[in-house]
Amino acid sequence: MFRCRTGAATYVRRMKKAVVIGATGQTGRVVVRALAEDGWAVTAVSRTGGRDEQWPGDVREELLDRDDDAALAKVVGDGVELVVDMAAFHRGHARQYAALADRIGSAVVLTSGAVYEDGRGRSFDTQGEPDGFPEYLVPLPETQPTVAPGDATYATRKVALERELLALGERLPVTLLRAGAIHGPGCRTPGELYFVKRNVDGRRVRVLAHGGRSRFHPLSVRTLAELVRLAAARPGSRALNAGDPAAPTVAEIGAPRTR
Ligand SMILES: NC(=O)c1ccc[n+]([C@@H]2O[C@H](COP(=O)([O-])OP(=O)(O)OC[C@H]3O[C@@H](n4cnc5c(N)ncnc54)[C@H](OP(=O)(O)O)[C@@H]3O)[C@@H](O)[C@H]2O)c1
Fold it and tell me: Of the N and C termini of the chain, which has fewer Cβ atoms inside 10 Å?
C-alpha cells in the first residue's frame, strides 16, 4: 500500500501486483529488482523459493512449481496486473495463461532468438547437418519466418508457446521477448569462459570456428530487465527481439583489450 498526504486529504493507492516466474535465475533476479524499484509489489516465484540479497525487503518469495496448475492459480489469486515468465517452454504453459487470462492484466514472456529460420529453412535445429548452419539477416527483423511449431525441440516448443500466447490477443496482451545470448552475473554457463580460461592458463591461441565471424546477439540481464520494465508499463500483444545495443562477432568478444 502506498500512502500520500496532500493538504487535508489522504489518498491511499494500491501498488500494482506483479508475479515473476523463475525469479531466482540469472534473468529473474535482476527483473524482480527492477520491477520492485519501479514501484511494483512483486511476488518472486521459483521451485526452491529463494531470494536475492539485492531485492528490496518487501519482495515476497513464493515456492511454486509452475507446472502445478492449481498452485499457479493460487499465486495469481483474485488477480495481478502483470506476470513475467522466465520459465515458459511449451504450449502447455501458454494454456495456463489462457485459463487465467481474466485474472492477469498483461504478461511478458521470455522466448528466444532460436525460433528463427534463415532464408533457406536452416535454424538452430539444423546446425549439426551438412550445410545446416543458419545464416540470418543482419539485422534480423521480427517478421523473419520461424520454425514450425511442435513438440520436438526447444525451438519448435518455444514457437508453439509463442503462437498460443499471441492468439490470446486482447483477452491477455502478451509481450514475447526473443532473447539473444544472455550474459551477466549469475550465469551458470558463461560463453566468455572459453576466452577467460585460456587467458588465465597462459594459452595465447584462441581457436575460432568460422574465423570468429559468427554472431549471436548478446543480451545483458540489465538490458533485459529494462525491456521487461518498459513492456510492463505499455502492455501489448507482440513479439520483440531482445538484444544489447551492439552485436559483436565472436572474434570481437574475445579480442584482447588494452586499458
Ligand atoms: N541463457 C540464454 O542465453 C538464453 C537465450 C535465449 C532465451 N533464454 C530463455 O531464458 C529463460 C531462462 O532464464 P534464465 O537464464 O534466468 O534461467 P536460469 O538461470 O536457469 O533460471 C531459471 C529460473 O526458473 C526457475 N524455474 C525453473 N523451472 C521452474 C518451474 N517449473 N517452476 C518454477 N520455477 C522454475 C528456477 O528456479 P528453481 O530451479 O528453484 O525452480 C530459476 O529461478 C528461458 O525461458 C530460456 O528459454 C535463455
Answer: C
